Amino acid sequence: MGVSGRILVVNPNSSEPVTAAIEAAVAPLRIAGGPEIAVDRLRSGPPGIATQRDADSVVLPLCDLVARDPSDAFVLACFSDPGLHAVREAAGGRPVMGIAEWGLLRALTLGESFGIVALSPASVKRQARYVRQMGLGARYSGSWPVDASAEDTAGDAVRGRLVEAGRRLAAERGADVIVLGCAGMAGHRRAVEDAVGRPVVEPTQWAVAAALGALRLAAC
Amino acid sequence: MGVSGRILVVNPNSSEPVTAAIEAAVAPLRIAGGPEIAVDRLRSGPPGIATQRDADSVVLPLCDLVARDPSDAFVLACFSDPGLHAVREAAGGRPVMGIAEWGLLRALTLGESFGIVALSPASVKRQARYVRQMGLGARYSGSWPVDASAEDTAGDAVRGRLVEAGRRLAAERGADVIVLGCAGMAGHRRAVEDAVGRPVVEPTQWAVAAALGALRLAAC
Amino acid sequence: MGVSGRILVVNPNSSEPVTAAIEAAVAPLRIAGGPEIAVDRLRSGPPGIATQRDADSVVLPLCDLVARDPSDAFVLACFSDPGLHAVREAAGGRPVMGIAEWGLLRALTLGESFGIVALSPASVKRQARYVRQMGLGARYSGSWPVDASAEDTAGDAVRGRLVEAGRRLAAERGADVIVLGCAGMAGHRRAVEDAVGRPVVEPTQWAVAAALGALRLAAC
Amino acid sequence: MGVSGRILVVNPNSSEPVTAAIEAAVAPLRIAGGPEIAVDRLRSGPPGIATQRDADSVVLPLCDLVARDPSDAFVLACFSDPGLHAVREAAGGRPVMGIAEWGLLRALTLGESFGIVALSPASVKRQARYVRQMGLGARYSGSWPVDASAEDTAGDAVRGRLVEAGRRLAAERGADVIVLGCAGMAGHRRAVEDAVGRPVVEPTQWAVAAALGALRLAAC
Amino acid sequence: MGVSGRILVVNPNSSEPVTAAIEAAVAPLRIAGGPEIAVDRLRSGPPGIATQRDADSVVLPLCDLVARDPSDAFVLACFSDPGLHAVREAAGGRPVMGIAEWGLLRALTLGESFGIVALSPASVKRQARYVRQMGLGARYSGSWPVDASAEDTAGDAVRGRLVEAGRRLAAERGADVIVLGCAGMAGHRRAVEDAVGRPVVEPTQWAVAAALGALRLAAC
Amino acid sequence: MGVSGRILVVNPNSSEPVTAAIEAAVAPLRIAGGPEIAVDRLRSGPPGIATQRDADSVVLPLCDLVARDPSDAFVLACFSDPGLHAVREAAGGRPVMGIAEWGLLRALTLGESFGIVALSPASVKRQARYVRQMGLGARYSGSWPVDASAEDTAGDAVRGRLVEAGRRLAAERGADVIVLGCAGMAGHRRAVEDAVGRPVVEPTQWAVAAALGALRLAAC
To answer: Which end of chain E offers a freer environment for a tag, N or C, measured as fewer CB atoms within 10 Å?
Structure first.
């Protein structure tokens, strides 16, 4: 049915393990009568978004991809929300959701102060800027780097570091909600939540849930 | 299937026209294979939430209703988000979404500064407090009262005043997104949007969309 | 003389030891020619305000008490300031002061950044919301829980934990003023101040002082 | 009795009409058995605090006055709160209250957003800085200048301009509480309140009420 | 002398009139013994930065230009500060200054609240995001669009609209400093200042002054 | 040439070692063809600005000095920016730059969050107030006292404590830029930067660079 439509979740990096983690994370949002949810990676993207240049380098490719793709809604599945506003221009009114944006918004409903598990010190700086840009500084406890690449986070070896980061954010910064600051970390959500004892938000899931809502509500 | 579950949308006032407006607003979120979405009113509630006492008077009844209701998730469909945190205690871990909360969060993704169409000057004050409590003051342009009751807003006569409020928020306060500050206003969303030329958020829809997401994601 | 009037200090919980602590705390504000200061407890209240439901459960009883009580001003002596705005509606223009409100305002005049000694982690969350609601986040160092009930704090055994919380707020959070986050803690003010070496605010005292001022100034 | 003590209210300017206005404003706070309340002007002060230099010029004289005066508490009765922190150093632990400080704090308890009636555009700038310094920007609607000297405001001719400023702050800036931004305006409080229909705060009254509270509570 | 070095001011758009306006604006900062100041345009850039895509499209070209250019410091002369952080990565430690960044910082020293003359409603939104990202929202009065392209602003016909925007920002938004929100507006600075009666900041000048400072101070 | 003009850097304290440190710090900003840069101390000033009274005591002498001095621009070289706004009134339109002001603004361009190395706990409080007054709280990590006088900081013995303060601000408060909170610390800038591994800002240098810019741009 036309109402149901199609959501394209784009991983702005070209990593297959990260894409697979995203694929698994969003699967529960596929509903019989609901929108198709497709996941793809930006084949021309870098293997991970590590530097600011990496983030900026995918903006035009994402704009071009969205401009020519017939999907009804889009999710940018990188926690830097690269090119979010430019892609919205390219989408011609179709919904475009950023995962950092929706991960942080969801966190606001689960506690008073959120912390973010970050890839690296450079990610910490980008997140500080982004939280301020969103105007959410009053709810932000800080970010904690795990010194890993996006692709690393899709593997098992990093789990202990994610848990440690979550614990430090809770104990030393007073975070009562943890947000996973990379799409690749999706498979560790429950383990980190169980170990840290605080709600943990997997951001791609919430951006897709929002896209689903936007699609259903577009006609009314 | 158990995963799909049931969302109960509770109108904390006892007004039938307001409840009918809510019912119509959330209908597009009923998806084959997705959660059941039930809408009910608090029969013991006041006809509308006008005073702070009205808002506070429904908290314990809402807690009691949620504690004994077997639904899997709840939406409190009054823009004062009455008793949101107490109801969460009563829900024993089941998701509870407030419509002001989610209406404002959705607005953050549609523009830089949101304004709220309010029922009355007393509502304007409550909204100012709530926006500060959520830590969203940096994105808030203000509220504009239409001097109507909740039940009034479910009728046609109020539409012109809603449009006028939206226009004033845009022109005089710089709002680039408008949030409807009462569940009863739901039926006017598109008309206000068309007349004002800014995105208009119907908050109950987004609280239900969030509840739907929470239900689907609860098991993973 | 009519000008002097009567201030009713209501302890929203039913605890006798907490009420006795309040009684002792406000005694110095009784002045020969000044207002009568009466202290009472809400007999229908819970033994302490521990949960959000506890806080919300006393709102209507407090409104009703104030509506029928002939006193000239009221102080709500629970640090959750339960029902402050609803009670103001019920008071018909007579002053109603909250102890959290006035404790925090007094703290602003004694240092740059205040910390709050809290009963429990749940209180910490309520305080975070309330500080944001008041718009005072720029002056807030945080809250530190002592894991005690309101009634516990009126006894001697808790003193060491109050001192420890004050020290942690000063040393780890940079608080240069400490606010006691429960009316029951009143009897420990001086001891905590001496031990921590920072000004310590007993909030009920300052709400009563404000009520006294409001009464004297009401006619001019 | 020693507990009662003496509060010295110092008008940092040398104007007799302003001093007389202060004298009248604080009279209701004289209570049998309560502290003596003396009012004086800084004879070496300028006729009014108009420029930043005026404000800064009275700091050392105020420090010296307080250091050698045996009063138990002090109120600095100029809305620039000149030298508040230096005078506190000079007071050796005795309470020193600023009228801007306490006028703004009182306003926080009467509405959501306060506006200030200012003497001049230069005062508006000083007030903007001071509100930020206090960390109260989230509650501030702005200041409105009446283009008058401090001494002018103690006369009758200025009343219409004060009312007009209050009305503009309410209607155009959304202020729901008005603070009189000069001690000389004290005699107009009730008239402005009646004309504007919003609570109006006379700041010297509230600084004296706070000094009274501090004196009574000093020993406990 | 090596210390003096070379500053390259890059206009990220390809417009010759805009580049000429920049050239004239920075001329007074050329000092006999000081750094060389070169001005160039990004020949591959769009004729003006109007959309978010325009802004994002110049990031990689700017990074590449800076990476291979031997200048000692760089100024990005577009008020969107496009790619500021990515270009800093590319500059290998050499100073990179954004004109929005330095225009806003200079404005903070000239008044309490700044307003920005913007090209278009889309620029207004970008500026709102950028002011928040910089954490300067407490000093921001808003932006006013003149509905012109960058190249338009380098001509004479736009001057009246710039003056009008400055006047509206001062009168309706309370701005006491005006920032010109496009490098092309540089030639109108004095005229707008004279007409509006408020200090007006030409941002490229202050970014170049900062680059000059950074170069002189790099060795110590 | 008239354009070049003369900048007078005034050390508000009378300390010769502090003045010598300032002299050395600003030397690189002397450019052939650029403004003369003179450094002097306020001979009537205290040996260091330790108390709030110290800071306030130099305001009128600074105003008088500036009013009668024929220099074209002024820098107040004390991190309390004493009398900044009064001195601006006295300067009759000539630029007056504060070193705290410009040190903090420069820091905003080097990282996300700045920390300040302070002389004493009293300085920490003044800095907290000043950062709020400037509206920069969203970028402030805190201040760390070294328990030294201004004159102490001009010597070698204090260097280890400065490094330690910088390290604590980085590690415990998350500062990614360090600002030296006293003009006397200037000679340690590079050593602290090398030891801490974060950019370190010497504030007098940036206030002088800004004065230089203002002088060059005054005529256009």
So the answer is: N
Q: What is the per-residue pLDDT for B2?
A: 45
Query: CA-nearest residue of chain D to F132?
Result: D133
The candidate with the shortest Cα–Cα distance to F8, out of F136, F104, F94, F86, is: F94
Provide the ipTM.
0.96
- Torsion angle in degrees (nearest 10) through CA of A168, A172, A173, A179: 10
| Residue range E46-88, pLDDT digits in tens | 999 999 999 999 999 999 999 999 999 999 999 999 999 999 9
Domain spans in chain D, listed from the N-terminal domain onward: 6-98+204-217, 101-201
C17 to chain A nearest CA, in Å?
Answer: 32
Name chain D contacts of B125, Cβ cutoff 8 Å.
111-112, 176
Which residues on neighbouring strands pair with residue E140, listed in sequence order?
E114
Q: Which two tokens stand for residue B52?
A: 């702070």
Report the amino acid identity of residue D114: F
Instruction: Assess contact for B50 and B21: CB atoms under 8 A.
Output: no
Domain covering E101-203 assigned CATH 3.75.10.10 in the classification: no
CATH architecture, domain defined by A101-202: 3-Layer(aba) Sandwich (3.40)
Q: By a Cβ cutoff of 8 Å, what residues of chain C touch chain F?
A: 111-113, 138, 174, 176
Residue D218 in tokens: 């000093």
Chain C, nearest residue to F140 by Cα = C138
Q: Tell me which residue in C125, C137, C142 faces A138 most closely, judged by beta carbons.
A: C137
Same fold, D6-98+204-217 and D101-201: yes
Task: Report how far residue E145's alpha carbon sits from residue E168's, in angstroms, rounded to the nearest whole number.
Answer: 11
- Kindly tell me if the per-residue pLDDT of B1 is higher than 50: no
Closest-CA distance, F44 to chain D, in angstroms, reads 15
- Contact state of D51 with F86 under an 8 Å Cβ cutoff: yes
Taking the C-alpha atoms of residue B53 and residue E84, their distance in angstroms, rounded to an integer, is 51
* CB within 8 Å: A217 and B210: no
Coil, helix or strand at residue D48: coil
What is the domain class of D101-201 according to CATH?
alpha beta
Per CB-CB distance under 8 Å, the chain E contacts of A89 are 51-53
* Rounded mean pLDDT, A40-55: 95
Best of A108, A109, A112 to disrupt the C interface by mutation (most C CBs within 10 Å)? A112
**How close D85 comes to chain F (CA, Å)?**
6
For the domain made up of E6-98+204-217, give the CATH fold. Rossmann fold (3.40.50)
